[in-house]
Design brief:
Elements: H1 2-36, H2 40-53, H3 60-73, H4 77-88, H5 95-111, H6 115-127, H7 133-149, H8 153-165, H9 171-187, H10 191-199, H11 210-226, H12 229-239, H13 247-263, H14 267-277, H15 285-301, H16 303-310
Helix pairs in contact: 1-2, 2-3, 3-4, 3-5, 4-5, 5-6, 5-7, 6-7, 7-8, 7-9, 8-9, 9-10, 9-11, 10-11, 11-12, 11-13, 12-13, 13-14, 13-15, 14-15, 14-16, 15-16
């Protein structure tokens, strides 16, 4: 009798597990369709149900990460941060899933401008024994960026130095660390030191040529921040003529050339630069928004600008 009862119980467990697995798969597929339709919040709620069902499912971490993608798309960054931490704490989560969850948690915290939480998420990666050198490099530079945004310059430089101390990183990653060091110096108004740091990137031969173009862009920024708008304008203009240039670098160079011209009181020439930003293929969204906002300001201040540009 006991053996028969045991078999029945085991059969019920198998049937229930099969049903749960089917339900989870159905919910995940439903969420994919909703996400494609840009119904991100509904997709996230659907995945929340799947995540709750998948208590012992080895795919629970992947379900959680799928939910995070929908939460990010829905701009629910606080919820995304919390789900990422839960995913990272799952016993069935693989090391790479934990690391990804911490990185995504940092990005979510950055979106809500909680740089302390973002830095703490990166700290989890740094102390995680399975983190690779590339993970550590990325985490240190993200930490440096968060410290920089919070005005903690000494901490930003310290995190950058740790990234630069990693011996097995590639030349391109070393260039990223040097760029961050230059950014730290620029934020402290150490313009000459920042210029020398950016200039050192020109010595890197085994990197994407766009690294050199970006270094030239950062050098132009040092003059702009220092108030030497004429030199900055010329350098931003020179960047636009580089052979190796991305859409984002081009749009940034145009944007800040326009800003420099505005500072110099050349409204019409500034407007011409700013108008080009939205036409650059691959331009950064914030560059387009900033250019549009400045154009509106120019047109309100001087209606003649709009009339002359139209002609």
């Amino acid at each position: 009798m006991l053996k028969k009862l045991t078999k029945i119980v085991l059969l019920l467990v198998v049937v229930c597990s099969s049903t749960w697995a089917e339900d989870i798969a159905m919910l995940r597929q439903e969420a994919r369709v909703l996400h494609q339709k840009r119904q991100y919040a509904v997709a996230a709620n659907t995945l929340k149900r799947a995540f709750a069902l998948a208590t012992d499912d080895p795919q629970r971490a992947e379900i959680g990460l799928q939910m995070v993608r929908s939460l990010h798309a829905a701009h629910d960054y606080k919820a995304a941060y919390e789900v990422n931490l839960e995913v990272a704490s799952l016993p069935q989560a693989e090391s790479k899933q934990k690391i990804l969850a911490w990185f995504l948690a940092a990005s979510a915290a950055e979106k809500i401008k909680d740089y302390e939480l973002a830095e703490k998420a990166c700290a989890q990666i740094i102390k995680f024994p399975d983190s690779q050198q590339s993970d550590l490099h990325k985490a240190y530079l993200k930490q440096a960026n968060y410290h920089l945004k919070a005005g903690r310059y000494a901490e930003a430089q310290d995190a950058t130095a740790k990234a630069m101390a990693l011996k097995t990183i590639s030349a391109s990653k070393q260039a990223d660390a040097i760029t961050m060091l230059g950014n730290c110096l620029l934020a402290q108004k150490r313009y000459e030191d920042a210029r020398k740091t950016y200039l050192s990137l020109m010595e890197f031969d085994s990197v994407d040529p766009k690294v050199h173009t970006k270094a030239s862009l950062r050098i132009a920024h040092t003059y702009y921040e220092q108030g030497d708008y004429e030199t900055a304008r010329k350098l931003f203009e020179a960047v636009q003529k580089a052979d190796a240039i991305s859409g984002k670098i081009m749009s940034e160079a145009l944007l800040y050339e326009g800003f420099a011209l505005m500072k110099a009181g050349e409204a019409n020439e500034a407007a011409k630069c700013l108008e080009q930003v939205s036409h650059v293929k691959g331009s950064a969204r914030w560059h387009v928004k900033a250019a549009t906002r400045k154009l509106d300001e120019l047109n309100r201040a001087s209606p003649m600008v709009e009339k002359q540009n139209a002609e």
